[in-house]
Every structure is written in structure tokens, then in C-alpha cells.
Design a protein that fits this description.
The chain is mostly helical and about 80 residues long. It contains 3 helices and no strands. The longest helix is centred in the last third of the chain and has 18 residues. This is Putative transmembrane protein.
């Protein structure tokens, strides 16, 4: 079945799909004001997954920022983002 992941391991995927990339881009524009992926035409979005090392580093930075923003500073704090 599934093997357990060790700290620092990465997940590999073949192609996340254009609908998922569009949603990621929308969230990135909302949070950072910039697109997550490089600009692509319609055919490229369907056929080519532009996710590379730069996007993975950017994703990790955004996730870390969201985690830090959502983490309560005190036990009595409740924050929604």
C-alpha cells in the first residue's frame, strides 16, 4: 500500500491538471497579487504542466506564510484567513 513519508521528503506527480493550476493561480493572485505560474495560452494550459522548481519553492513560501498567519499567537486568539 502506501509507504510512510519521512521529514523532508517530496511528493512527485505527473500533471496536476489545468483546473487545479487555475485555482492555484487565483489563490496566488488573491494572496500575493501575482500569478503563480508563467503565462500560457489555452492549448499550453491543457497540455503543458509549467510547474518547476521555482513554483515549488514559491508554493512552500506561500504555505509557510499562510501557516504562520493562521497560527494563534496566544491560546485565546482565534483568526480566520
Amino acid at each position: 500500500m502506501f509507504q510512510p513519508f519521512e521529514t523532508g521528503q517530496r511528493v512527485e506527480y505527473a500533471n496536476i491538471g489545468s483546473a487545479v493550476r487555475d485555482r492555484i493561480d487565483t489563490l496566488s493572485r488573491t494572496l500575493t497579487g501575482t500569478t503563480f505560474y508563467p503565462e500560457q495560452n489555452f492549448a499550453e494550459r491543457l497540455l503543458v504542466d509549467p510547474t518547476g522548481g521555482a513554483q515549488l519553492v514559491k508554493a512552500e513560501q506561500i504555505i509557510n506564510r499562510l501557516a504562520a498567519d493562521a497560527r494563534p499567537k496566544q491560546l485565546t486568539d482565534v483568526r480566520m484567513i
